[in-house]
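Re-run with default settings, no changes from the original entry. Doing this only to confirm the output is reproducible before filing.
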Amino acid sequence: MTTPNQTISQPLLQVDALSWQISQRDILKNISFDIAPGQFVGLLGPNGSGKSSLLRCLYKYIKPSSGRISFENHDIQHLEQNAYAQKVAVVLQHTPQQFHLSVTEVVALGLVPHQSVFGGRTQADKEQIQQAINQVGLNGKETMDFELLSGGEKQRAMIARAIVQKPQLLIMDEPTSHLDVKYQIQVMELAKSLGITILASFHDLNLASSICDQLLLLKNGELVANGAPKDVVTEENLSHVFDVCTQVNRHPQKDVPLVTYFYGYTSQGEDDEH
């Protein structure tokens, strides 16, 4: 029971009984979870488990077959797309081709949801863009062609664009999949440093355990675990979901799970998939 002086933080995002089918095939099945303001939430699961489909539902790229997604207690299907884009930013696994736009021009795209059709770029806008570029460590590369950046630099530029967008929620769909280990850590620590609510999908279980406050674990389109990393990243869960043998210990630097994998698998499982 709460006292009159206690306040309860309402979820920023609520997902209730979400399902999505395509061609009579269940891709997502009865998924429910909440995300509180300021949380960094990781989404885990093998390929084909529904991670990207779930994120696409959340940023309104696809419409669920059933269920409800609420943002600040409003059904997102009733929110106008531009108004929703002012609150929710997206960084994808593959950075889009920007057709020879400079770093500054790419970052400035974050202003689009907040501008009118004929809105120009003010001095305050320019200062905001430069501040975001500085924040992600790309100062000195403002005029460089975006396509000439390294993979890690491109993802930092996309995060700078999200900073300019000033979202309440940042959705990241496996943004580190094609980056070297150093840049995987840099990009995710940069995202965490923003202090906003983040939902990101991961392949790297150890990186997710280290960065995230909460983890969601999917298998075959169903949510099979939801909680703190120490409660989700367990030997039993990893065996059930990923079909691998592991040993889960405590990370030497942080009080989070550290996964060690055992080897010696045969190709029988691969043959059975076909």
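Residues 269-274 have pLDDT under 50 and may be disordered. The first helix runs from residue 51 to 58.
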